[in-house]
Specification:
alpha/beta, Nucleotidyltransferase, domain 5, 2 domains, five-stranded mixed β-sheet, 10 helices, about 35% helix
């Protein structure tokens, strides 16, 4: 069976047609539309083009579709709140697509984009073959998703997985959600920049500041460039960041007990330079580290395709084609 996955990002949309073995049969990218009607029209066009390119239309098939969007999505497929797609907040994605497609496709599944990325990595990426997977995506903030017993954990309102807003320091810096000290203020790409600026203001990040031009202009990418150059001060900054990242991972692992933690997002391109100190800090913070089965921490395997592939996976699962493993999605 073929499924279509559509991933809506802040600047681009990616669509794939996927078979149940994880093979990408067709792929298309285009800029994101921000107006609700234009967004729904673009998603409709993407679906039709991908279904045709994969040969589904010629065979008279109507593939299920999954859609990943950045924000809170309720159980009815409505985009309740989307900070990066404010003009589309409140949009009824599922019904809007159904009306444009003539209500002829069997399944339209709409989920948060990080939930879709989780489904992709669990089915065909770094979590493949595992029934208990935690996926953490490091971007400007932190997104995430949970697979337990082969099933995606969505919660009562479909809002599970907002792990970036677990508070790790109630007196910490303000967060965009309205609270203080959320994990993503310390362990996201922007969190890395904030930690590096603190080091710079203390006179402990000279190369990072030189790359940025000014201490106030320091961002996470300047830290990573300095790391690539072998700068020792940047290495200390990264170790501080790794400790904060591991703190949140250990808290989540104590609750969820995953078999593997998959880390995605742009920062993971640093590879073992980042993951090694995270693993060391994680082992020192998780309960029972000497007696419990080891929890692997791996880099995501599907790059920027994970959301679209995962969206296709959740569409296939909802249509009755299990690809996630024991218990389905």
């Amino acid at each position: 069976m073929i499924g279509v996955g559509l991933d809506v990002g802040g600047t681009k949309m990616l669509g794939v047609a996927l078979d149940e073995e994880g093979r990408v049969l067709a792929e298309e990218r285009r800029p994101t539309e921000y107006d609700t009607a234009a967004l729904l029209d673009a998603l409709t066009d993407l679906y039709r083009g991908l279904a045709a390119a994969a040969g589904a239309e010629a065979a008279g098939a109507t593939p299920p579709v999954g859609v990943g969007v950045p924000g809170l999505v309720d159980t009815e497929g409505r985009l309740v709140f989307a900070p990066n797609l404010l003009r589309a907040s409140g949009a009824d994605i599922r019904d809007g697509l159904a009306s444009r497609l003539g209500r002829r496709i069997p399944v339209i599944q709409v989920d948060n984009d990080a939930t879709c990325a989780t489904a992709g990595e669990a089915a065909f990426g770094a979590g493949r073959g595992r029934s208990d997977v935690l996926v953490v995506t490091l971007g400007t903030g932190i997104g995430g998703g949970i697979v337990s017993g082969g099933r995606i954990v969505r919660g009562s309102g479909n809002f599970a997985g907002e792990i970036g807003h677990v508070v790790v320091d109630p007196k910490g810096p303000p967060c965009g959600c309205g609270r203080r000290g959320c994990w993503e203020r310390y362990a996201s790409g922007s969190g890395l920049g904030r930690i590096a600026r603190d080091f710079a203001l203390a006179g402990r990040a000279s190369r990072i500041v030189a790359l940025a031009g000014d201490a106030d202009a320091v961002r996470g990418e300047h830290v990573m460039r300095a790391i690539e150059e072998g700068d020792e001060e940047a290495g200390v900054v990264l170790e501080e960041f790794a400790w904060w990242l591991a703190l949140g991972l250990a808290n989540l692992a104590n609750v969820l007990d995953p078999g593997v933690i998959v880390i995605g997002g742009g920062l993971v391109r640093a590879g073992e330079v980042l993951l090694d100190p995270v693993r060391a800090a994680f082992a020192s913070q998780i309960e029972g580290t000497d007696v419990r089965p080891p929890i692997e921490i791996l880099a995501a395997a599907l790059d920027d395709r994970s959301g679209a592939i995962g969206a296709a996976v959740i569409g296939l699962e909802a249509a009755g084609t299990p690809v996630l493993g024991p218990g389905g999605g």
